[in-house]
Design goal:
With 121 residues, the chain is mainly alpha-helical. The chain is built from five helices and three strands. The chain is elongated. 10% of the residues are buried.
């Protein structure tokens, strides 16, 4: 029995749900990279990076190519970069709205004592 598409989508987003994996994809936007190229940029140990790359590879998000003794990683589908850009735009918009709300709150004066309506006494 086929899995529902919403479940497949959730698993796809779960694959992307790790900061190191997102960082790897951001770096792959510029082209192929080896693990040794990625380590200083991602900022995690080689063994941990290899685990994260394996997750992306199993999900068919990245692919590999051997060149001599190096294994080069690249994105399987360049549309992944469009998805990351769209996520960035959504987050930027959301943060901008939050900043506007914070600015409005900052303009409110909560120290003033409310005046009592004397006509109701």
């Amino acid at each position: 029995m086929a899995r529902p598409i919403y479940q497949v989508k959730a698993e796809f987003f779960k694959t992307l749900g790790h900061p190191a994996r997102i960082r790897v994809l951001e770096l792959l936007r510029d082209g192929e990279h080896s693990v040794s190229d990625l380590i200083p940029e991602v900022g995690i140990e080689a063994s941990h990076l290899s685990q994260q790359l394996a997750v992306l590879r199993r999900a068919n998000v990245v692919q590999t190519r051997k060149e001599g003794t190096s294994v080069l990683y690249s994105a399987t589908d360049p549309r992944i970069f469009d998805l990351l850009e769209l996520a960035k735009a959504i987050l930027t918009s959301s943060l901008a709205e939050s900043q506007e709300l914070l600015a409005e709150l900052g303009d409110l004066d909560f120290t003033a004592t409310p005046t009592r309506d004397r006509s109701s006494s």
